Every structure is written in structure tokens, then in C-alpha cells.
Amino acid sequence: MDYLIIGAGPAGLQLGYLLSKTGRNFLILEAGSSAGTFFKTFPRHRTLISSNKVYNGTTDAELNLRMDWNSLLSDDPELLFTRYSDRYFPPADVLVKYLGDFAQKNRLPIQYDSRVTRVTRTADGGFRVEDQQGRVFEAKRLISATGVSKPYIPNIPGIEHAEQYTTVSVDPKDFINQRVLILGKGNSAFETADNLIPTAAVIHVAGPSSIRMAWRTHYVGHLRAVNNNFLDTYQLKSQNALLDGNVERIEKRDGSFVVTVSFSRANEVKKDLRYDRVIICTGFRFDASIFDDSCRPELVIKDRFPAQTSEWESTNVPGLYFAGTIGQVRDFKKSTGGFIHGFRYSVRALHRILERKYHGAEWPHEELPAKPKALMEAVLARVNRSSALWQQFSFLGDLIVVGREGTAKYCEEVPVTYAHDSAYGDSESYFTITLEYGPGHDRVDPFDVEVGRIAQDDAMRSGEGRYLHPVVRHYRKRELVATHHVTENLENDWTSEVVHREPLKAFFTRELGMSNTGERTHSAPVESQLQP
Fold first, then answer.
1. 283: region left, alpha or beta (phi > 0 left; psi from -120 to 50 alpha)
2. Looking at residue 265, what is its pLDDT?
3. Residue 184 CB contacts under 8 Å (≥ 6 apart), including other chains
4. Is 149 or 24 the better-scoring residue by pLDDT?
5. Residue 411: how many CB atoms within 10 A of its CB?
6. Beta-carbon neighbour count of residue 293 at 10 Å?
7. Are strands 202-207 and 179-183 parallel, antiparallel or unpaired?
8. To 10 degrees, the CA torsion angle through 355, 360, 364, 366?
9. What is the DSSP code (8-state) at residue 424?
10. Residue 524: pLDDT above 60?
């Protein structure tokens, strides 16, 4: 067959849906008895932190997807997660039901109860996959959509004494009057801490790095406001605390644990602290154990993710691709590739890459006249409505490839690095269009009224904006020659004739080398005055 997909979670289902639409021969292997098995257990406290905003004041389906972080992409208006729950942070069990319905209604070919135990290469360069029941499957190409399924355990002496987030009790009554140490400073750690506030005597949350708040960094994997009640209890002196430092060892003594902490803020002072329970909440990693030496992918980022090209292909195993959460290595902690509302678009881009690479299909595009007004209109129409560019900011971009015959191809949702790495990068003239936060956006407190902001009608200072706004860049054979920032707007409405439309049209006029009448004045694009 053409493709084998490992995992019937959101990414595997999304890719399966797209492959079915193009008539490819594929099969999805799922370890569990139904789709979305991971979400039957996680998050442990059973509330999603992905937005589910039903009422947005618009009937535009594309705009609504900006606030719907759980739906997969399909042509069926009934297969929207917002039809399943109206809670802003919905129960995880509803997502399980939604994913099951998505698989069933689209009649996706899924082999359930098929836990993959071994992956090897075939003589012709394909893949041979065995499951726990001894069944064997072969395909030309393999896509791993398993997520990060293996707990990441820090290398600390005595860590075997600690309990894991994956199995620890979630009943607060099991922690009455206990002193609890939680290792980790991410959402799983604070989700666990918040759950224990009413009953635990003391809760300490420990880790060597500073807490990064999602509302400041704009990375939704950082600590979310819905999980940070614990910070109030710390700052308002309710016996709880953050420990900024490294846990050096855990020792079991007289029915409790003595933990040695080397503090970061106090000249590396060390202190021994006693706890009744220690819980590991340090996240997950990709499990590469199923791969034979002949096709084991190289790992990166503390061995937590497989290394990948701009096509989401393994850097050392040709034909092995990754989809979903494990594809986030391409935009790690910079955009939203690790989450459904981001990777549903990354998976669609991956599908288009596969179609282009193996089946001779062109990237979907619209033909436009290569004239300033036409390109300006097309760009602003997209940035004012697109969900993909909104969710996958800085990472996915629209692409305009200018031809020699006075036309241009407008391609939607192309990974920016792929645009440069692929044949598109050989083009004499092309533009990328992204939505981006400005430089230094994560170093400024957005609630500090003393921090200056760019006026919404100040087109001359548009490049200084920190809020989300469109950025258009002009390249010639991969070399950046000019950048234009469309002035930010509080309500993301980039339609002003004076502030948005005319400056962008002028940018295209300069870069296309045209006069105000639309006549070409020279053959090569010139460098914009709005250089980054």
C-alpha cells in the first residue's frame, strides 16, 4: 500500500481523512480499541485547556476555526467540535467521542487493537510493521502519528521513589495534610498542584527554569492561566511555594522522602526538604523503541522528538514521516504545531507535500495577475480571514510565486522553511505572507500601561509592532530583499485604505518594479525601503 499511519489520534485521523479524499491506499494502526485512546487518560484531571468558543458573532466557518481549537478539518459541517460541547474548556471525554465519530463517519480504514511492536525496512526500501498479535503490514511510506507517549523521567538519583503524573491518584482526599513535591513547571505540574490545594498541607513545585506564562510568550504550551491558581497561593502565603533550582537526589527515610534541592536564586545554596509524596510532572517524549536499527530515527531536544526535515521526514530514515504533536520540532515552542489547532494545518501541509512529491500533484493555488493591486487585495483578503496563518503564526505562510509572463501563483498555507528548501526557493521572485508577533513580544508585560505601543494608524512605525500582524517578505532565489509589516490592529481588521491597503500596494509596486499605472519599469525587483 502507499501509506501506513501509526496512531488513530487527531493527527492520524486528520491525515487519514485527507488521504482518503485523494484516493490513496492506506491503513491506520491503532493500539487501543477506539480512536483517541490517549485522551481517555489525559489530561489526568479530565478538562481540556484548548479553547472551544461557540459564539463568535460570525457565521464565517473559517473565522470560527480561529477560536475552535479542537475540530479537525473536514467538509462535514456536523463534524465540528463546537457541536459537541459549549463549554470553553470542555471535558476530555467529549473529545474522545468526537474523534470516534470523525473516524466512523469518514469510514477511515483503522486496524484497532494493533499495538506496533517492531518496524523494519523492506528490501525495496519500504517499511514492514509488526503488531503485538503477530500481524504484519507493509507500505512504501510510514507516518508516525503516535504523539509523545512515553513519560520523560529526569536523571535524578532516587527518582524511582517518585510517583508519575500518568498513574498518581487524582483524588485530593488521598493527600490530606501531606507535604507534596511536584517536579516540573509546565501545565501538567500546575494542573496537579491546583487539584491538591484544598487538601495538601504543603505543596512545592520545583524546576530549574523560570515559569513562562502563555499570555506573555504566546506559546500555548507554556503555563496557561486556567492552571495558575497555585501562583496565588504562593504569593499570598498559603504554605505553598515555587522552588527555583535543581533537585539533586531523592532519599527515602523513615516513611517519607528527603529531597536535596540546589537553589538557583541563592548562590546555589543546597537544602534538604522532607516530603510525604514526590510526583513527576516533567512531560512526555517520543518512543523510538519500536524501530529497528535499520530505521531508527535520530532524536533531538534531549531525545524527546525525532529530527525532521522541512517536509516532516526523518533526517536519517527516508520515507519515514511524522504528523501531529511529534511534528512540532519544526516550530518548537514558537508556534502551535504541538496542538490540534496548529497541527491540523501542518498535517494538511504534509499531505500536500506528499501529493506533490510522490503523486505529481501541484500545490493548490490561484492564478493572479502579477500587479500590485491584485496581490494586495489577495493578501489582505487572506490575512483578514485565514485560520491557518492565525494559528500557525510565523510557521505557515501563504506563498506568491511571480512568473515571467506577468502572472503569479498564490499558494495557501505553505510551511515557510519548506518554501525556501523546495523548488519554490529557486524562483526569481517570490513573496511569503505570515502572521507574526513583533520582536521582543515575549519580553514585555502586555498589561503594563507604561509600556509604549504603536498607534493603530501609524503605518510608518508598523515594523515596531509587537501584536499579531501580517508580514510580507520578498525573496529572490532564497535571498531576502525586502520586508513589509502591515500595521497591527486591535481587532485584527487590516482593511483601512490609508493604513493597510495603500502601503501594501506601494510595497508591491516597488518590489515588482512597476509604475503607478501598473506598467513594469524594470525587469528585476528592487529592494524595499522597509528592510528588516
1. left
2. 75
3. 165, 205, 206, 207, 280, 281, 282, 283
4. 24
5. 20
6. 7
7. parallel
8. 170
9. G
10. no
